[in-house]
């Protein structure tokens, strides 16, 4: 008998309505009863056209969008309507990496300050926080002296590595990744995607991976969920959904952004691995 693993996070018929200013204005319904679960150590890719509600689902999980119907459970606890203090406590377990590594890091703080802050405010001793920062920099393949520098001294890819390190500071169980590689050039994208995979294999963290790019989602996801106008129209195994979609909308998405042939993808993966192995042999990554 195989053990059934409990989901880490369950979105159960989640509705999000945004209030609209003005007399007699109806709120805008952005999510219309979305149900999705994410298992421990799993990556669920969330795709869909612009405005379909992907970011809003991520924000609802993070407590940043108002859940007006249904609920979101994390480790079997309803987290849809938490107070500030409970939400702050939950940030240990649920973290986020945003699209733009330029605006998501405080430009006035050194990388070490950015990474130690979440540890110091929760009572970690400074010496222990310093050790943790060194191990985090190592985990995202940045040199140890990166800690003394400011975000502006790094490339886009390196800044996204810093943002990933910050998300990892307190060993989260889930990271909401909202278009985390969209602002990066193609070769940097693939290195950062491989970093996400490597970190997951080492730590067992789960990802909700929001993207409009089907080749990205196929590369990193175990399962894919397709959103259309505030509803999930299809959820399933990543290869299945991106090669033989069942829903007409998913087929349209695929036609709009053709996914390379599986053999070409395998070649690309092999290329990436050769590249990463060569980089590892040469020293810390440059992006
Ligand atoms: N704070 C808000 N108030 C009112 N409407 C909002 C708010 N945030 C988002 N929306 C609306 O909700 C809808 C879904 O937006 P959302 O950002 O979740 O979509 P998305 O699929 O992530 O799109 P994109 O890929 O362009 O980021 C859009 O029509 C957007 O205008």
From TrEMBL:
Keywords: ATP-binding, Nucleotide-binding, Transport. One of its GO terms (molecular function) is ATP hydrolysis activity. It comes from the Bacteria. The keyword Transport applies. CDD domains: ABC_NikE_OppD_transporters. GO terms for biological process: transmembrane transport. Residues 8-254 form the ABC transporter domain. Gene3D superfamilies: P-loop containing nucleotide triphosphate hydrolases (3.40.50.300). The keyword Transport applies. This is Peptide/nickel transport system ATP-binding protein. It comes from Blastococcus tunisiensis.
């Amino acid at each position: 008998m195989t053990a059934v693993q409990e989901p880490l996070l369950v979105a159960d018929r989640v509705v999000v309505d945004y209030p609209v200013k003005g007399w007699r204005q109806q709120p805008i319904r952005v999510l219309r009863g979305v149900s999705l679960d994410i298992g421990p150590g799993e990556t669920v890719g969330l795709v869909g056209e612009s405005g379909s509600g992907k970011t809003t689902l991520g924000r609802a999980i993070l407590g940043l969008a108002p859940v007006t119907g249904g609920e979101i459970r994390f480790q079997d606890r309803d987290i849809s309507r938490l107070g500030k203090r409970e939400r702050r406590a939950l940030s240990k377990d649920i973290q986020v990496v945003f699209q733009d590594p330029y605006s998501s890091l405080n430009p006035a703080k050194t990388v070490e300050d950015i990474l130690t802050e979440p540890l110091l405010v929760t009572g970690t001793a400074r010496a222990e926080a310093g050790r943790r920062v060194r191990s985090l920099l190592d985990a995202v393949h940045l040199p140890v002296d990166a800690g003394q520098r400011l975000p502006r001294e790094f490339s886009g890819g390196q800044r996204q590595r810093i943002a990933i390190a910050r998300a990892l500071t307190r060993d989260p169980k889930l990271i909401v990744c909202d278009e985390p590689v969209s602002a990066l050039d193609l070769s940097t994208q693939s290195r950062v995607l491989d970093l996400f995979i490597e970190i997951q294999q080492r730590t067992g963290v789960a990802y909700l991976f929001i993207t409009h790019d089907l080749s990205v989602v196929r590369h990193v996801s175990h399962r894919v969920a397709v959103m259309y106008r505030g509803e999930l129209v299809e959820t399933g195994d990543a290869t299945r959904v991106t090669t033989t979609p069942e829903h007409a909308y998913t087929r349209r998405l695929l036609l709009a952004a053709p996914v390379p042939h599986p053999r070409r993808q395998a070649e690309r993966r092999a290329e990436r691995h050769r590249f990463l192995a060569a980089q590892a042999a040469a020293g810390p990554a440059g992006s």
